[in-house]
Amino acid sequence: MVRERKLVEEVSGWLRLYDDGSVDRTWTGPPQVKFMADPVPAHQDFIDGVATRDVTIDENSGLRVRIYLPEPNSEDLNRLPVILHFHGGGFCISQADWYMYYNIYTRLAKSVRAICVSVYLRLAPEHRLPAACDDGFSALLWLRSLAQGRSSEPWLNDYADFNRVFLIGDSSGGNLVHEVAARAGNVDLSPLRLAGGIPVHPGFVRSERSKSEMEQPESPFLTLDMVDKFLGLALPVGCTKDHPITCPMGTAAPQLDSLNLPPLLLCVAEMDLIKDTEMEYYEATKKANKDVELLISPGMGHSFYLNKIALDMDPLTAEQTTALIEGIQEFINKH
């Protein structure tokens, strides 16, 4: 007789965890938004000015990346900077090939004239933290091996400027920007140079609720249920949100002034649930004399630029997404 499995945890329509350890990530929310979480197949032909391919970068672990290459043009006098991307999803959901990322990172690759390399991160609870951090750092070391000529990937070998490598991450991917940059500060990456880090609406929180968590409106991409449950499933067993990965400005984390961090562009949405703790990170990095800039998107909520429906229907969301991309472009251009 087959025992029926029992539901242990459910997170806002995104994830269900059962007592046998199995995880179901089938979207059960409004069907009209499901397309944003659908995978987009890689295409090596240029479509709307960008080609994509999936590459396995570690045969032993199976770690993969998706590469976005903007179509070469006669105005490209120099090689293109590389943007190493870490997707969001509270460390528990989403993939590098989801439509929401494809839609924005094809646009970013074209606008900035950069090669985007997005990592297929391992997900919790099957792979709790620091697994995703390890994957992000492994991807950076793979780029170093390409720069050194020890590995080969035609698109990157032919077009990439390894002297201008940037980290970018959405939401929980923003946490990885900090963590991977901090690790990178302890190793010799040459001839690769880590030129900057761009945490976009990073998932920096504390155990104690912030004022913005209690007062700001929830959004489709971030609810308190998601904050609490995803991090409960993702952090090492027995740890709280004060863990260094989720609270790098806290007392449990390494002192920020002891870290060798690249220049940072912290992107914050004015109406984000976790705005207050993101701003704590900003103030702490400034106090530690780090090179950090702040880009605030007025009137916007968490990860607004990934919401294709809002991008199409709401002129303000479209306008602020353009401003965000232009701000990222300006930061990359000067580093």
Q: What does this entry look like structurally?
A:
31% of the residues lie in helices and 21% in strands. The chain is globular and about 55 Å long. It has 9 helices and 11 strands. By secondary structure, it is of the alpha/beta class. The mean pLDDT is 96. A hairpin with a 4-residue loop joins strand 4 (50-58) and strand 5 (63-70). Helix 2 (131-147) crosses helix 4.
The CA-CA distance between the termini, in Å, is 63 Å
Shape: globular
Describe the largest sheet: 8 strands, mixed
Q: What is the residue-mean pLDDT, rounded to a whole number? A: 96
pLDDT < 50 stretches: none
Which strand order do you get reading across the main beta sheet? 4-5-7-6-8-9-10-11
**Total number of beta strands:** 11
Rg to the nearest angstrom? Answer: 19 Å
Structural class: alpha/beta
Helical coverage, percent range: 25-40%
Strand coverage percent = 15-25%
Note the run of SSEs as H and E.
EEEEEEHEHHEHEHHEHEHH
Q: Number of helical runs?
A: 9
Family: Belongs to the 'GDXG' lipolytic enzyme family.
InterPro entries: AB_hydrolase_3 (IPR013094), AB_hydrolase_fold (IPR029058), Carboxylest/Gibb_receptor (IPR050466)
Domain Alpha/beta hydrolase fold-3: 83-305
Pfam family, one: Abhydrolase_3
Which key phrases capture this entry?
three-stranded antiparallel sheet, single chain, Alpha/beta hydrolase fold-3 domain-containing protein, 335 residues, alpha/beta, AB_hydrolase_fold
